[in-house]
Amino acid sequence: MLTIGLVVLSLVVTSCNRDTDNPLTPTAPTTPNTGTGTTTGSGISTTIPFNLGSVYTNNFNRYTKVTTPNGGSIHIVAQSNLTNEQIIRCRSILEHYLTNYPGSQYGADKSAVANKMAENNAILCLLNGQDDGNNSVGNQVSGQPLYQNEIQVEGHSWYMNQDYTHRDAAFEEILHFVHDNGIGIDGANTLPGAAPAYQAEIRAAQQNALSNNLWGIGQDSWIQELTQENSLSQEYFASVVDSYYGLWGAWTESATHGMWGMYVGKTRADMQTDDPMGYALMNNKFFHPYLTYNAQISASLNGNFSLKFDTSKPYTHHSRYLKDVTLLGTNNNTVTVNEMDNKITGNSGTNTVIFSGTSTEYTVNTANDVTTVTDNTANRDGVNTLTKIEKLQFTDTTINL
Question: Are residues 257 and 266 in contact, defined by beta-carbon separation less than 8 angstroms?
Answer without folding.
Answer: yes
